[in-house]
Amino acid sequence: MTAPAIRVAGLSKNYGKHVALTDLNLEVQPGEVFGFLGPNGAGKSTTIRILLDLIRPTAGRIEVLGTDPRTGGAALRERIGYLPGELEIEGRNTARELLGFLADQRGTVAKRRIEELAELLDLDLAKHVGKMSKGNKQKVGIIAAFMHRPDLLVLDEPTSGLDPLLQQRFLGLVREAADNGQTVFMSSHILSEVQDTADRAVIMRAGKLLGTENVEDLRRRSPRSVELVFAEPVDEAEFAGLPGLRDLHVDGRTLKCTTEGEVDDLFKAAAKHRIQSVLSTEPDLEAIFFSLYGR
C-alpha cells in the first residue's frame, strides 16, 4: 500500500500562551489535490511551515513523502515546490536571472520550461524583481514552485494578487499537475477557489480541523435551489411530501424548492406537466461546509 504524501498526527503548536494548532490529524494521498481551507488566522500557514520544517511543532508527528521533514534535508526539499503565503522578493536581478539561478541550483529544469510558464502567466522576465508589483512577484513564485515538476506542491494562498483570468490559468496548472500524478496541497481562505480542482477539502477554524470531505460526494449530497416553470399552473399538493424536498413554494406556473440528495422524484412528478424552463443552482463549498459544520 502506498504511503500518504502527507501524514499528520496529533499536531499542535503553541506560541507561549497562544494556541495556533490543536491536535490536527490528516492524510493526503499521492496524486491528490487537497484543499486546506479556512479564514485568515485559522492555522493554515502555521501547518504548512511545520510541514516544511520552517518551524517546529509543540507536539505531534509529521511525514512528508514518507520522511520526517526534520531529517529529510536537501533530498526531501528537491521533491517539493513551495509557494509561501507572504512572498518577499527583492533585489536588482531580473525575473529571468532569478529563476535561472534557481533552475541551475536544482539542475533538472529546462530553460524553455521557465519561458512557457512565464508566457502562460503573462510575466515579463526582463523586469527587475525588486520593482515588480505584488501580482508579478506572485507569478515569479508560482513559476519557481512549478518549474521542476515536483512530487509535492505546497501552495499557501497561491492566487493572492492575481487577476481573475490569471487565477483560472493558475488553476489550470494545478489540474495539469494532478494529471501528471503530482500531489497538490493548497491553502486558501477562498473556499470557491479550489472547488473545481480539489479531490478532498478540509476546513480549519481557530487552529482546529472542523471536517474533511470528498468534494464530489459533497456536491452530490449538497442542497440545491431548483426553479421549474411550467406551461400551465400546477397544484402544490402534487409535490408536497416528496422525499428530499423542502422550502416548497408554488405560485401559478412557477415552482421553487430546495432539494437534498437525488432529484429523481421531483422530476418524475414534474414530468407529468409540460416544463418550459429549469434552473438548478448548486451552492459553493463555503455554503456547503457551513451547512454541515455551522458558523
What's this, in brief?
This protein has 295 residues and is α/β, with parallel strands linked by helices. 31% of the residues lie in helices and 30% in strands.
Structural key phrases:
single chain; 295 residues; alpha/beta; Rossmann fold; Alpha-Beta Plaits; 6-stranded mixed sheet; 4-stranded antiparallel sheet; globular; transport; AAA+_ATPase
Overview of the structural elements:
By secondary structure, the protein is α/β, with parallel strands linked by helices. It has two domains: 210 residues, Rossmann fold (3-Layer(aba) Sandwich); 73 residues, Alpha-Beta Plaits (2-Layer Sandwich), CATH 3.30.70. The protein is built from nine helices and 13 strands. It is globular, with a radius of gyration of 23 Å. Its main location: membrane. It is a peripheral membrane protein. GO terms for molecular function: ATP binding; ATP hydrolysis activity. It is found in: Cell membrane.
SSE map:
Layout: E1 6-15, E2 18-28, E3 33-37, H1 44-51, E4 59-64, H2 69-77, E5 80-83, H3 95-106, H4 111-120, H5 134-146, E6 152-156, H6 164-179, E7 183-188, E8 200-205, E9 208-214, H7 215-220, E10 223-230, E11 245-251, E12 254-260, H8 264-270, E13 275-281, H9 285-293
Parallel strand pairs: 3-7, 3-8, 5-6, 6-7
Antiparallel strand pairs: 1-2, 1-4, 8-9, 10-12, 10-13, 11-12
Strand order in space, largest sheet: 5-6-7-3-8-9
Main sheet attributes: strand count, strand direction, barrel closure: 6 strands, mixed
Q: Give a count of the beta strands, DSSP E runs of length 2 or more.
A: 13
Question: How would you sum up the global shape?
Answer: globular
Low-confidence stretches: none
Supply the helix-strand structural class. alpha/beta
CATH-derived topology of the largest domain: Rossmann fold
| Helical content (DSSP H or I, runs of 4+) | 25-40%
- CATH classification, class level of the largest domain: Alpha Beta
GO molecular function, one term: ATP hydrolysis activity
Protein name: ABC transporter ATP-binding protein
Family: Belongs to the ABC transporter superfamily.
Membrane topology: Peripheral membrane protein
